[in-house]
Fold each of these.
Amino acid sequence: MMGRTIFIDPGRCIGCQACVSACRECDSHRGKSMIHLDYPEEGRSVASLPTVCMHCEDPVAPCAEVCPADAILVTADGVVQQADTTRCIGCANCVNACPFGVPKIDLQAKLQMKCNLCYDRTAYGLAPMCATVCPTGALFYGTLEELRAERPGVQVADSFTFGSTTISTGVAMVVPADKVQWPVPGGLPIVEVNGVDVR
């Protein structure tokens, strides 16, 4: 896990979409949000979940590994950047490689879009736009020590399993203390990482 990162706390999300609006208004996003607000049980529950790039550390950024144009770079401090607009060919390999379903393709622009942790802000010690406006702290930006000082006893996960594959991430998820299970079960199993069949 990165030193200073985003901690997602789904139990605090009220679905207000402030994070989505703040992301969309960032100068570099040209009116498009790089964060998704999902409703896992839409119609049966009001539960909502902000989805940001998890900045996979191990294996390192499956989205970048499968990019044939080397458009997705990973910084020395582990931030997986959004696709370089001068290199991205909109092939969607990154969409298919991401176990968390984060990257999206702008079909008109033929360009990948995803969260880059507001690197233009975080590189200078500022919080990402989404965490800055979240009224409930569902998106917390800081260190694990800062999170635990504010929320004593909180448990976080930064490794997730997809089938037999475990992925460690730079962004962490707050998990209920009474339901801690390491690593946290992910979604659908991964079938290929870095061109290697891992089924």
Amino acid sequence: MASNKNTKKQEELSEADIERLELLQKANEKVGRQLSINTEEGTLHEIDELKQVIGKEFENPEEKYNIYYRGIRKLLMDYLPKGAEFKEVRDIIYDEKNIFLNLGKRKSDNNGIRKSDGRMTYQPVMNEILDIIIKWVAESQNPFDIYREFYELNERHGYGHEEYDKTTLSVAKAMKKLGKKE
């Protein structure tokens, strides 16, 4: 008796209903994967198309380590002036760099604690600042220029700047003025 009812319902489906059911079944099939043939090896490989499309967006911890420690940090340490007499200048430059890497978070917002870690920022953010540093090393190596670059980078992204006491603020203002404009 029950099978007679199911048969009746199936008979009552119109062509449009059947077409919709087929579309729903197709929509339920796996998407984003495809088999490919490696002609050199003669093997089949499943390719995750989604990963290929956005593969560069995934964070790679090893790459991030290299960008930060072997790129950003090393270049700044190698090319910024060394010695105790330039510590304030370096600290001001590092503050601007860290505001950008921390997407606008400043130490002055939380009594000297940023509550964020620039080494863990997004890879495209790291790459953006690394490109600026590489260009600075190649073209200028003037510490005031890199300060101005970081300052303007934070301005473009709508981030603020550290709030300093009067002495440090006057040094920061002088560094910005001494950085050459193109």
